[in-house]
Every structure is written in C-alpha cells, then in structure tokens.
Amino acid sequence: MVVLNKIYTRSGDGGDTALGNGERVAKHSLRVDAYGSVDETNATVGLARLHAQGDVGDALARIQNDLFDLGADLCRPDMARDAEAEYAPLRMADAQVDRLEAEIDAMNETLAPLRSFILPGGSALAAHLHLCRTVSRRAERLAVELATEEDVNAAALKYLNRLSDWFFVAARIANDDGRSDILWIPGANR
To answer: Which interval of the chain is the signal sequence (predicted)?
Structure first.
C-alpha cells in the first residue's frame, strides 16, 4: 500500500530524482524521460475518459492502471538484480500485451478496411484518443532508445507498441465505427 502524506520532499531541488531502487539520477535522464512520457500518456487517457463510456471507458480505466504498472517497471532499472530486491519489483507481463491484442482484434472486426490515412479528429473522444496515440508513441520511442543503453523489460516495450495501435482502432470506433473518420486527401490544398 502506498502512503503519501507529504507531497514535496525537497530532495530533487538539485535536479536529480530517485528511481524505484533508490538510485539517484538526473531528472533529464533517458529513463526518467521514458517513464515521464508514460505518465503523460496516462494523463491524456484521463482526458479521453471524460468522453468515454461503456466498454471503451472500462478499457481506458484498465489502460490507466497498466500505465502505472509500466511506469513502475521503467523506474526500476537493473532487472538482473530483481531477485535481490526487498520486494518483487512490478514488471509488465505478456498477459497485459495479450489483452490489448485481443481488444484490438475485437474492435477491428467491426471496422471497414482503411483506403486512406485518417486525420486525427472527428468526435471529441476520437480526437483525444489520437492524442493518446501520439503521446504513447513518444513514450515508446524513448523506451526503445533506453533499451539500447540499459535493460528494459521486453513486455513493457511490446505493451507500448500495441497501445498506440489500440488507441488508433478505438478512435475509429469512436468515430461511428470509422464512418466519421476524416480521410487524408493527399495534396488537397496545393
């Protein structure tokens, strides 16, 4: 159980922060940037939820929880030392990726194939889901870059990759099952 009775600590006033294992790093480190972008993704999902209901709203709530799991995973470096930790670090699991894939497949079954790229927008929910998609893509790029320098849980990378696809398909669902998608017209304004 997390207990937060004091919000500021002053420990980061010098520009560093503590990772999940207690190690202190610069606030501009790639790891902090990666899990910070995951947190930003979570905030955009919170905005999308203002316009969602039913199955999509429930799925977005699950995704928000997963994103906290993902942030916890990314803020804990040195996976090789997980067994030595006082308590087992929270790591993303393939089951979370599998759930996203199943949800993408189920949503996609109702959609006509795309014959053009689509522009972000349409309904308020679709527009917010496209914002979620682009922010999650940035988080993925940062996590992939981090993985070139340090160990990163493979399930975390897969989850981020599937997540942006989930947001894309959900945005099409939010646009009247794709019927209200705004199609890109190449060179339309030349």
So the answer is: none
Q: Supply 186's token pair.
A: 């190449």
The tokens of 167 are what? 């947001």
> Quick check: is 83 in a domain?
no
pLDDT on residue 162:
98
Task: Please check whether residue 12 lies inside any domain of the structure.
Answer: no
pTM more than 0.70: yes
From 36, 63, 59, select the one nearest 139 (Cα to Cα).
Answer: 36
User: Three-state SS for 98?
Assistant: helix
Cβ atoms 176, 112 nearer than 8 A: no
The answer to the question of residue 24 being in a domain is no
Is 62 contained in some domain? yes
CATH number at residue 119: 1.20.1200.10
Judge whether 19 and 25 are in contact, CB under 8 Å. Answer: yes
Q: Are 67 and 38 in contact (CB under 8 A)?
A: yes
* Residue ranges making up the domain that contains 173: 29-76+88-178
Identify each DSSP E strand in 68-165 by its residue range: 118-119
pLDDT of residue 10: 79
User: Which residues, in sequence order, are bridge partners of residue 17?
Assistant: 25
Residue 1 reports pLDDT greater than 70: no
Distance CA 40, CA 90 (A): 20
Tell me the pLDDT tens digit for each residue of 26-78. Answer: 888 999 999 999 999 999 999 999 999 999 999 999 999 999 999 999 999 87
